[in-house]
Amino acid sequence: MSDSTLQAKGNAIYVETTQDWQTTPALGKLVTFSGGVPSINASTTVPAVAVVLDARTRTAVGVTTYMNSLGILGGMPGPMRGLIDSGSVPLFFGDRVMQAASGALTKEVTGSPRVVVGIVTDENGANPGDLTEITFITPCCLTY
């Protein structure tokens, strides 16, 4: 943490408490917000805001509490894990990844509108369905 009185936190990881993302597997998927309400990203062209880093549910005295950790894209201190879309091709270290309509990530395909959100930094690469190390960037909308 810096010595600045204006710095609010030491990282851009936030706890979200309204969604049950443990029973609806969401780990490593991208998130968008509408009116402050989060949902799993379902678009290849609307930029996501965050990635689900952890999804927990706790029930005590009949009350269920959701505790989902979200990492804000472009503001995390280092690589995090992202879910590779089941329809993707194998990925290699250094491949750029873009949003898939499933909320997961897929290898960048040039020549169409897309939103690039990170770079594969797992030395072993990744296969479809893997949770793999991604260095997330601020979403970048591309059309070339």
Which key phrases capture this entry?
144 residues, mainly beta, five-stranded antiparallel beta sheet, 0% helix, 44% strand, globular
Summed up:
The chain is an all-beta fold. It has strands at 13-16, 30-34, 37-40, 50-60, 63-72, 80-83, 96-99, 105-107, 114-120, 131-142. It folds into two domains: 13-72, no CATH class; 80-142, no CATH class.
Fraction of residues in H or I helices: under 10%
Q: How big a fraction of the residues is strand?
A: 35-45%
- Strand order within the widest sheet? 1-5-4-2-3
Mean pLDDT: 91
Main beta sheet: 5 strands, antiparallel
Number of strands: 10
Order of helices and strands: EEEEEEEEEE
Provide the gyration radius in Å.
16 Å
Uncertain runs are: none
Terminal-residue CA separation:
39 Å
Structure annotation, total helices: 0
Structural class: mainly beta
* Structural domain tally: 2
Shape: globular
Assembly type of the chains comes to: single chain
Describe this entry's structure for a reader.
By secondary structure, the protein is an all-beta fold. Helices cover 0% and strands 44% of the residues. It folds into two domains: 13-72, no CATH class; 80-142, no CATH class. The chain is globular. The mean pLDDT is 91.
SSE layout:
Layout: E1 13-16, E2 30-34, E3 37-40, E4 50-60, E5 63-72, E6 80-83, E7 96-99, E8 105-107, E9 114-120, E10 131-142
Antiparallel strand pairs: 1-5, 2-3, 2-4, 4-5, 6-10, 7-8, 7-9, 9-10
